[in-house]
Specification:
The chain is an alpha+beta fold. It contains 5 helices and 11 strands; from the N terminus they run ααββββααββββαβββ. The strands form 3 sheets. Strands 1, 3, 6, 8 and 11 form a 5-stranded antiparallel sheet that branches. The longest helix has 36 residues. The protein is elongated, with a radius of gyration of 48 Å. The two termini are 86 Å apart.
Length: 279
Amino acid sequence: MTGKTVPMVVLALAAVALLGALLMFRTSPDAVARRERVEATGPAPAGAAPPEPMLAVEAHLVVREIGSVSAELSAVLAPIRSVVVAAEVGGQVVAVNAEEHERVEAGAVLIEIERTFLEAAVERARAQLLRAKAAHGLAVTELERQRGLAERDVASEAQLDRASNQERASYAAMLDARAALSDARTRLEKTAITAPFAGIVNSLDLEPGAYLQPGQAVVELLDLSAIEVEFGVTDQEVVALQVGDPVSLRVDVFPEEWFDGTVAQVGHAADERTRKYPV
């Protein structure tokens, strides 16, 4: 290539670059917008300042909303409360009025124990109370008589003291007999083992004729009016939970049905084995 050819190539490249820049300037969004404004309003008057470029601003409305957290967790379902009812008095079972997995109402008689011996104990305690009342009445009469004699200087101070002590002793014996009668009646009432609340009999393996010892467990009762669900969450999930928060959940046995619940308790320490927080 000769020395004259090189400047000609450079000039050609510069011309192409200049034409490209002019074309980009003419087709830029700002240039197009200015031409449209000129066509709409007409040419600007002589000497007028060129219009200032307009700044386009986009505005977005920001709304704060409380989102929900969805997680698939393994949980343990348990009744809201359960109790193992035991016999409070010993005796032979004469009737079993409930069956396993049967629903019972609060106060329903589940098991009946032989009452004959305890009924006799109630009668003996009642007779003892009557004797104590009679003895106390006699002691009161004697005390009043001794007081009257003492006022007339007929009875000695020692006789008055003995009468007073006898009255107090007879009163104490009457209170003791009254307590024994109350205890006998209570034991008689305990021959009927009742349900402390309405629920489902979970276990009851007992037949009439069996003998129960005091304190022997006889029936397990579950309160299924509400279900307690316990599950574990990570440290990132536990910070989003508070007592009273609503929770929706479903279980495998009812895959198409959702249940509403409320957070009742949030653990403050992670389980050492699972490293998760119990909820």
